[in-house]
Specification:
The complex is a heterodimer of chains A (111) and B (124).
Chain A: E1 9-12, E2 18-23, E3 35-40, E4 47-50, E5 64-69, E6 72-77, E7 86-93, E8 100-102, E9 106-110
Parallel strand pairs in A: 1-9
Antiparallel strand pairs in A: 2-6, 3-4, 3-7, 5-6, 7-8, 7-9
Chain B: E1 3-7, E2 11-12, E3 18-25, E4 32-39, E5 46-52, E6 57-59, E7 67-72, E8 77-82, E9 91-102, E10 105-107, E11 118-122
The chains are: A mainly beta (111), B mainly beta (124).
Chain lengths: 111, 124
């Protein structure tokens, strides 16, 4: 089972919106709505930002939103803030025996 | 709110067995799946496997031959053993809460929460 494909880096200025893509296959992202997104600051544990494609856990800013089209899921961060600078990972349930697969990770830089 | 804490040796010799325990506090371990995830320095996340409170397990096929997970509901703990370790197993190991599965159904709402992570180095 290969990792889901994410861009290595995405950048934006404060206040702008950015979108991170997460491309999988018809066996994972395309097959299930069990796509989640995680934010990870250096030296910290990942934090759940989005689950089931587009749902935000309690306490997560509404500047974070998720969507999916076909085999590609997306995370959009609107009104970019300095604190959003971090690594972001997507994850999907998969029909393979691996059960869960993570994305390759995207470093978000706030210019 | 539920908190997770990993514990175990930070240094393991090559060919030996890595053993970690995750303690769940401020909540019950029952009715949930619990996962182990690792991250080599500077690299991405890898799902290792999960265990349900009944003891049922799912393992990543790439590690299946070396992984054993167990659960102790009386102590609100679950554990990971990874045998025959090599330098490639050096990573930060995280435990995390996985899906809810009870009489009302199966709910997979992402890995949440996570433990703070523990660095395990494989070296002689």
């Amino acid at each position: 089972q290969s990792a889901l494909t994410q861009p290595a880096s995405v950048s934006g200025s404060p206040g702008q919106s950015i979108t991170i893509s997460c491309t999988g296959t018809s066996s994972d992202v395309g097959a299930y709505n069990y796509v989640s997104w995680y934010q990870q600051h250096p030296g910290k544990a990942p934090k759940l930002m989005i689950y089931e494609v587009s749902n935000r856990p309690s306490g997560v800013s509404n500047r974070f939103s998720g969507s999916k089209s076909g085999n590609t899921a997306s995370l959009t961060i609107s009104g970019l803030q300095a604190e959003d600078e971090a690594d972001y990972y997507c994850s999907s349930y998969t029909s393979s025996s691996t059960l869960y697969v993570f994305g390759t990770g995207t470093k978000v830089t706030v210019l | 709110q539920v908190q997770l804490q990993e514990s175990g040796p930070g240094l393991v010799k090559p060919s030996e067995t890595l053993s970690l325990t995750c303690t769940v506090s401020n909540g019950s371990i029952s009715s949930y799946y619990w996962s182990w995830i690792r991250q080599p320095a500077g690299k991405g996340l890898e799902w290792i496997g999960r265990i349900y409170t009944s003891g049922s397990t799912n393992y990543n096929p790439s590690l299946k031959s070396r992984v054993t997970m167990s659960v102790d509901t009386s102590k609100n703990q679950f554990s990971l053993k990874l045998s025959s370790v090599t330098a490639a197993d050096t990573a930060v190991y995280y435990c995390a809460r996985d899906a809810l599965y009870d009489s009302s159904g199966y709910y997979s709402r992402g890995f949440d929460p996570w433990g703070q992570g523990t660095l395990v180095t494989v070296s002689s």
